[in-house]
Amino acid sequence: MPAGMEGVDRRRRFLQPKEGTQLPGYTGYCPQYKFLIGLTYGNVSAKMLKGVKHNPLTTSDPGQAAGPRLAHLPRFDGTRRLTEGMVPGYTGYIPRKRYKDAGTYGRDSALSINEFFGDTKDAVRADRALRATVAQAPRMTPTASQEETLQKMDCFMPRKVTLLEDKRSFLEPPMPGWTGYVPRKKITEVGLGRRYAVVAKNGFCEQKDHMDRHSSLRDTPVTLERNESPEEEDTGLLDRRLYRPEGMVPKYTGYIPQRRYEFGNTYGATSRSLPVCYHDKPTFGSYIRSQALQVST
Predict the structure, then answer these.
(1) Domain ranges of the chain
(2) Where is the Ciliary microtubule inner protein 2A-C-like domain (predicted)?
(3) What's the pLDDT at 259?
């Protein structure tokens, strides 16, 4: 006997406590101990343990009641997950367990697993019987040849590649909410103050014009002699102006020359009153050169 047990027995023989009394120093759990005040530890523990009653296990307990024999419930062999005697706390999936109520975990799990395996075996048996019936049945003879059948089907659905026909045009704008790339949407004035469909259509159109222009430059002969007068205007650059005569959208966050010196007007009126917007030249540089020529003359 260990030395600690001999000390406890010696103390019990010396104190001769009542039956069920715990010796002072016991660190285990005593029910309702914190609600009793005014008695010693030994008397409190004897009083509490004397009032504890244990109800005997009855046969009406659903966990122990004799139920129907589970013929399809597999026994535990260490290789299966769904077997008899499922431990409470298992977090895996048990077929049909969610439809069982008012029973213990073990009983409901056993019934669910038994029903699942029983129905599985019945389904496999029925499938095999159906396959055997189909294999024994006489084969049906076709009423038309394969070529004739395909010819009739071609009247409704022609057998040819239709991917090229279903391909959309490059200039067709996508649906609003499309997260793909739209050319020139964020770097030019195409995406300012317009609906998504208009922005996408204009962006694709400008991109196609840009691609066509570059393609045409490959076949265009290059001439080194170019005589241009200061008043010559390039009308092709009018559509490429960033600062438009109608003014800028209030949400435009870019730089506008000379705007910091204008006060008292709205954003649109201020931008329309600036030379960088209201000039009628193809570019602002052409406008500056024309003004310089007027001053010099």
Answers:
(1) 3-51, 74-133, 169-217, 241-297
(2) 22-61, 248-272
(3) 82
